[in-house]
Design a protein that fits this description.
Helix content is 46%, strand content 22%. By secondary structure, the protein is α+β, with helices and mostly antiparallel strands. It folds into two domains: 72 residues, no CATH class; 62 residues, OB fold (Dihydrolipoamide Acetyltransferase, E2P), CATH 2.40.50. A five-stranded mixed β-sheet has the order 1-4-5-3-2, with no helix packed on it. Helix 2 runs antiparallel to helix 3. It is rod-shaped and about 75 Å long.
Length: 144
């Protein structure tokens, strides 16, 4: 059996396991095995096939981790309008409590809310800036 066939079988097995577990890291490692199969087709020695598998597999994992870290550093899920459709919606505050919280009506229910740090607690319309658990964090709506 040719070396390329072994690499293709290993890549297929790893992709099958990835489909069962749902972890993208196995998919990244399988890309290294696919690169090794292509190197075998190109006539590379077994040593270069292994090096190719390692470089592509580990390299793709490192690139994916870098992408994940840069994405999570820019926007948290609680404050990301793409992940949480409540962000950017408006609510009306009629009364603030002494502890800096209030109850607002939103989507037909009463919600606990608080201002973001540095926001003045005045009565009126606020925009939902973040949702933490079941609490809305509000910022003042700009007057237009």
């Amino acid at each position: 059996m040719a070396h390329s066939t072994l690499w293709w079988i290993a890549a297929g097995a790893l992709i099958s396991v990835e489909l069962l577990t749902g972890t993208l890291y196995l998919l990244m490692f399988s890309s290294g095995l696919i690169a090794a199969a292509v190197a075998a087709h190109a006539g590379a020695t077994v040593t270069w096939q292994v090096v190719t598998a390692a470089v592509f597999g580990i390299g793709s994992v490192l690139v994916w981790r870098q992408i994940k870290q840069s994405r999570s550093a820019t926007t948290r899920t609680q404050a990301n309008p793409g992940d949480n459709l409540d962000i950017g919606q408006t609510v009306h505050v009629t009364q603030w409590r002494a502890d800096g919280t209030c109850t607002v009506q939103y989507r037909g229910a009463s919600w606990e809310a608080a201002c973001l740090l540095g926001q003045a607690m005045t009565l009126g319309t606020y925009t939902i800036a973040e949702v933490v658990g079941s609490r809305l964090l509000l910022k003042a709506t700009p007057v237009s």
